From TrEMBL:
Gene3D superfamilies listed in its UniProt record: Ribonuclease Z/Hydroxyacylglutathione hydrolase-like
Protein's UniProt keywords contain Hydrolase: yes
Family the UniProt entry places it in: Belongs to the metallo-beta-lactamase superfamily.
InterPro entries: MBL_superfamily_lactonases (IPR051013), RibonucZ/Hydroxyglut_hydro (IPR036866)
Keyword Cell cycle: no
Protein name: Metallo-beta-lactamase domain-containing protein
Keywords: Hydrolase, Metal-binding, Zinc
Molecular functions (GO terms): hydrolase activity; metal ion binding
Cofactor(s) needed: Zn(2+)
Naturally occurring in which organism (per UniProt): Rhizodiscina lignyota
Top-rank taxon, per record: Eukaryota
Length: 323
């Protein structure tokens, strides 16, 4: 899909008469419980918060499956509703994230709003393949799956000592229906595998690596390295000079984006220190780029995957409601 031209400045382009918009609806994808000291600086060591794993339905005005007049895209799938479908190693980790709530999951949230996951979804994009974002891909029988470069390598081989291969389901994604976004010029070409989408990275609104998903400037995939290999965000245009930035796990607490908190460092269990990010330096750079972008584009609403405050204040934005 061809792009609509690169834009090297930090500000979003002005609205045009013929531009296309998408609609975005939030979806519940389950809840998990996180100890704050693992995620933010100056945290109460005893405080634990049960937070959502938000998913999003993005509807694009183009022809979808079965002649529908919208292309239906899901960004992230949340938790699996059946926790026994995780690997034993992952189940041990999940035991430390209780309480975990799996209903409604992403598929159930779609059905509650009037869509059937197995026939009405055209594309699924995963921000990354950590357990609380992968859901149950087999629910989406007619969808193509798009993932960040290197994701398939992670599923087969893991991603370093903190994310060993045994925590991932090797057969998570359908082989014939899964496509990776191409590596960026700065990415690791050696771990890219599988079939690639036909997109090209370009600079857009201050982001050095963005791709125009539909070729009309309505939805941009943003390369967001640092959290884990293949991590991507989405930037979508929902109206004249109105945009939404879906930040996935660029941070786990929106106060980090606001500059009120920093990324927590904690004992890695082997005599060293770590953060929740695979590459903290890259994750920090990604956050700095997002902060700079938001500072120059006041018309953008940002939502990160585990923002309980946003969920509580915006229950009317869940499908069939819209953002």
């Amino acid at each position: 899909m061809a792009g609509n031209g690169s834009q090297s400045g930090d500000s979003l382009p002005s609205a045009k008469e013929d531009e296309k918009y998408v609609t975005i609806s939030a979806l519940d994808g389950g809840h998990l419980t996180l100890p704050e000291y693992l995620f933010i600086t100056d945290a109460d060591p005893e405080r634990r918060a049960t937070v959502p794993s938000l998913c999003f339905l993005i509807q694009h005005p183009s022809l979808g499956n079965n002649g529908r007049d919208t292309m239906n895209l899901i960004f992230d799938l949340g938790l699996k509703r059946d926790l026994t479908q995780y690997t034993p190693a992952m189940a041990s980790h999940i035991a430390n994230r209780q309480p975990v709530i799996t209903e409604p999951d992403c598929a159930g949230s779609l059905q509650a709003g009037g869509l059937e996951p197995d026939v009405d979804i055209d594309i699924v994009i995963l921000s990354h393949v950590h357990w609380d974002h992968v859901g149950t891909p087999s629910d989406y029988k007619t969808a193509k799956f798009f993932v960040g470069s290197g994701t398939l390598h992670v599923l087969q081989n893991g991603a370093g000592s903190h994310y060993p291969a045994e925590i991932f389901n090797k057969d998570l994604l359908p082989t014939v229906a899964t496509f990776e976004f191409p590596p960026t010029s700065s990415g690791d070409q050696s771990i890219a595998s599988g079939r690639r989408t036909g997109h090209t990275w370009q600079s857009f609104a201050g982001f050095p690596n963005a791709l125009d998903l539909f070729g009309d400037g309505s939805v941009w995939v943003i390369d967001a390295p640092g959290h884990i290999i293949g991590h991507v965000n989405l930037l979508a245009r929902i109206g004249k000079d109105r945009w939404v930035y879906l930040g996935g796990d660029c941070c786990h607490d929106v106060r980090i984006l606001k500059g009120e908190k920093g990324i927590a460092t904690y004992d890695d269990g082997h005599g060293g220190q770590r953060t929740v990010h695979m590459d903290t330096q890259a994750a920090t750079k990604t956050l700095d780029q997002i902060k700079s972008f938001l500072g120059k584009n006041a018309q953008v609403q940002v939502i990160v995957a585990h923002d309980i405050g946003w969920r509580e204040k915006n229950k009317d934005k869940f499908f069939p409601g819209t953002i």
